[in-house]
């Protein structure tokens, strides 16, 4: 159990599945706001299991204890909300 996050990459017009385990959810909840643009550092990349696959991308981003989320306030790219 945990939180599923979808990352939009405007440069290649793709979506990547992100996952925050329930044990870490309370730590990251204040940084997660609908529609916000964030920079994520220090995460783990893994192959996406077909059992939990929600998108076509073969990889997923896992939030681990050193993961840092910073909201991008200035210079943020525009994301096409239709994507």
Automatic annotation (TrEMBL):
Cited Pfam families: DUF223 (PF02721)
InterPro entries: RFA1B/D_OB_1st
Domain (Replication protein A 70 kDa DNA-binding subunit B/D first OB fold) ranges: 3-70
Domain of life according to the entry: Eukaryota
Protein name: Replication protein A 70 kDa DNA-binding subunit B/D first OB fold domain-containing protein
Classification lineage: Eukaryota, Viridiplantae, Streptophyta, Embryophyta, Tracheophyta
